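[agent] plan:
  1. take the single chain provided in the ticket
  2. run structure prediction with default settings
  3. attach structure tokens to the ticket
  4. add a short note for the reviewer (M.T.)
[agent] executing step 1
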Amino acid sequence: MQAGRAFTLKKEERITSRKLMDKLFNGGGSRAMTSFPVRMVYLEVERESEDEPQAKVLVSVSKRHFKRAVKRNRVKRQLREAYRKNKHIVLDRMQTRPGRTVALALIWLDNNLHDTANVEGHVRNLLVRLSEKL
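[agent] step 2 finished; step 3 output follows
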């Protein structure tokens, strides 16, 4: 961990736009990779403004995997925390591409809960692989 780096996850860094979600899942240009139990779908797009973040994230846990909201919320919290702590891996790579931003969706695939360190390891693995492809 480097000093001076903000390990935050602000609202601007989350995908809230329906248009961007449609582009990510239905646009055809997106790519996916899996590190079970996490699947990451990503798409590199043009940056709309200079103050827009270079990486935006969406976290999804299906009701099909966990009927109870308590468990779904726990997994979403684990995924968000793992991304927040390791997003610098992708952001450092995106510094070389100033006019671009990457949209990521982290999707849970398993019917079982995992411990936080395990989830973080899988998310870090996906972010490292993504940074190599960008």
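[agent] step 4 note for reviewer: The chain is about 40% helix and 20% strand.
[agent] ticket updated
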